[in-house]
Amino acid sequence: MKIGVRAHDYGRMEIEKMAEKLHAEGYDAAQLALPKAFTEIRRYEDITPGQLERIRRAFEENKIEIPVFGCYMDLGNPDPVIRDHAVRTLKKCLSCCREIGAKMVGTETAYPHLNRQEKAQWYPYMLDSVKRVVEEAVRLDVKLAIEPVYWHPLENLEAVLDVMDKVGEPKHLRMIFDASNLLQFPDTTDQKAYWEDWLKYTGKYIEAMHIKDFYFDKNGGYCPTLLGEGVIQYESISGWLHEHRPDMYLLREEMNPEKAQEDIQFMRKL
Fold first, then answer.
1. Distance (Å) of CA 153 to CA 70, 206, 252, 260, 266
2. Strand ranges inside the chain, DSSP E
3. 150, 163, 180, 246: which one has the fewest Cβ atoms less than 10 Å from its Cβ?
4. Closest C-alpha to 175, from 106, 111, 227, 222
């Protein structure tokens, strides 16, 4: 397995300094959301060919692979202006993806936390947006990876399988698996059975895993924590990885740079 991190958890840096920092920390890979990671880039619209070449060269020289070009967009928003902006931005990033040597462009399907009625309302808009972006991914022969989240339109296993079936492009439409974004009821969920079910049916689509941990405080607030100190039970996920995908990218999110080495060791044990 290849151990990586969401680069902007270290803050924003110059392109070359970020690559050098991640190499020094011992990572094999990084997820890059360019405006969040690099001081030279403010918006996706402002990315230049020169910046893309600097990123590709700096990360190659420091032996840091780029499995995910992060561009998280509000794909299901009922507002057509917002939705069209999301589609256009993702299409631009698909064209940039190859230039920096990234494996895929990654996105969630919404921004806000939605209730059940809103998720149902946003679902067809999300599906239409994904189809439009995947058309461009097919044209460019690059990959789009969608990340399910229980408070978004792409909320559960059934939704993922429905989208994969209706889009019908498994070569170009892939998935990022994030256990923390799928565990709505940690106190009552049989995680062994839950993760085995997810991995049985979606494992063939997974290109990368986000690794993080959390707990809910007494008011129900989400609290990130060190890996292994929260509610996520990684044993069955680890078993699946060893049996089926020992080459998987494991990308740490919500990482505390001061505790990075502890998390890296946890991921290596997975």
1. 19, 19, 24, 32, 31
2. 2-6, 29-32, 65-70, 105-107, 144-146, 173-178, 206-211, 213-216, 222-225, 249-252
3. 246
4. 106
> Is the distance from CB of 266 to CB of 256 less than 8 angstroms?
no
Q: What is the pLDDT of residue 138?
A: 98
Q: Can you point out the beta strands (E) in 7-116?
A: 29-32, 65-70, 105-107
- Asked if residues 10 and 18 have their Cβ atoms less than 8 Å apart, the reply is yes
The backbone region for 240, taken as left when phi is positive above 0, alpha when psi lies in -120 to 50, beta otherwise, is alpha
Residue 173, token pair as written in the block: 């439409």
Alpha-carbon distance 122 to 114, whole Å? 9
Angle at the Cα of 259 (from 263 to 211), degrees rounded to 5?
Answer: 30
Distance of CA 253 to the CA centre of its chain: 9
Closest CA to 30 of 175, 208, 180: 208
Is this structure's pTM higher than 0.90? yes
CA distances from 25 to 7, 224, 230 (A): 11, 21, 23
User: Reduced to 3 states, what is the DSSP secondary structure of residue 44?
Assistant: helix
The single residue listed with the structure tokens 């151990």 is 3
Of all residues in the chain, the percent with pLDDT exceeding 90 is 98
Residues 158 and 233: their CA atoms lie apart, in Å, by 22
Region 201-220: what's the mean pLDDT?
95
Amino acid, single-letter form, for residue 31? Q
Q: Rounded to an integer, what is the distance from CA 117 to the centroid of its chain? A: 25
